[in-house]
Amino acid sequence: MRGRAPVAAPDAATVRQLAVLLQAGIAPEPAWRHLASLGGAPAGAVVARLKDEVPLARAIGAAGPGWGEIAAAWSVATTVGAPLASSLRGVADTLQDAADIRDEVRVALTEPMTTTRLMSWLPVIGLGLGVVLGFDSLRVLTTTPPGLVCLVLGVTLLVLAQLWSRDLARRAEPAPGIPGLRADLLAIAVSGGVSLERALTIVAQAHGGHDGADSDVRRILDLSRSAGVPAADLLRAEAGLARHRARTAGRMTAARLSTRLLLPLAVCTLPAFLLLGVAPMLLGIITTTVLPL
Q1: Strands (DSSP E) along the chain, which ranges?
Q2: How confident is the model over 156-205, as pLDDT tens digits?
């Protein structure tokens, strides 16, 4: 197969447009072609793979990162005979919730990361302040042995602070994937009228061989069996709860990041300020006043 450029991750708008086309009675492959004609890169990637005679669900999953979830929902709905348009609308709502979670966490991360970036300029400001006040800080740092030691240690600490802060911010980013996806896929499967055991098997096959349920989802399935109530609504409620938990966890992680970023500030940035800003001024005073005596 010919190499193709990667496309954007799936978004709720694209999936909703596809659901509208399907609900209007357009067959799946023509529906994707209509989306591609509007200039959508993901739909274009799917249509290009269809020309290579790739099965539709596989073509959707191969469109790029994140499209495997859409392919799994498509495969489950078509396998059990669930309404494809309404299933995709539910997936679109799930995608929108997941995008909202990521956006909320990134907004919460903006303030502590901006503060960290501003504080990283503190050593440079200290060095510039020394020059403005008449201290020969640059000459001391670049020509004297003690100054060279301060320069190397200060720059090393600044680089370490940047790497440390970026690592903390990366860990605070939301985990990839869609919270509650497996519960949503199972809800689609059981809405097609298959048994719970068959639904688990179908979801496992569509989701890359992974088990179709975690402990929370299995608890919901056990509740459905014991109470004799339909599992679809319970599963959708569990999926919504999973996304609520992910949103809360993301906010808590972002809040904790403000405290954790104090570590590279205290351990690296402030010592770098002393080495690059204060130490050269003191060394300059010593070399110009004390040593000549």
Answers
A1: none
A2: 998 998 899 888 888 877 777 778 888 888 888 888 888 888 888 888 88
How far is Cα 161 from Cα 285, in angstroms, rounded to an integer? 29
- DSSP 8-class letter at 207: T
**CA within 13 Å, CB half, 291:** 7
Distance between CA atoms of residues 293 and 291, nearest Å: 5
Which residue is associated with the tokens 């409620």?
Answer: 237
Do 61 and 103 have their domain in common?
no
Residue with the two structure tokens 């599963």: 235
Task: Report the number of distinct structural domains present in the chain.
Answer: 2
- Give the type of residue at 19: A
Residue 75, domain member (yes or no): no
Cα–Cα dist 44/38, whole Å: 9
Amino acid at 190: V
Distances (CA, A) of 35 to 53, 102, 114: 19, 26, 39
Are 134 and 39 in the same domain? no
Rounded to 5°, angle at Cα 290 from 286 and 293: 150
Range of the domain at 131: 84-292
With respect to residue 234, please indicate whether it lies within any of the assigned structural domains: yes
pTM for this model (two decimals) = 0.67
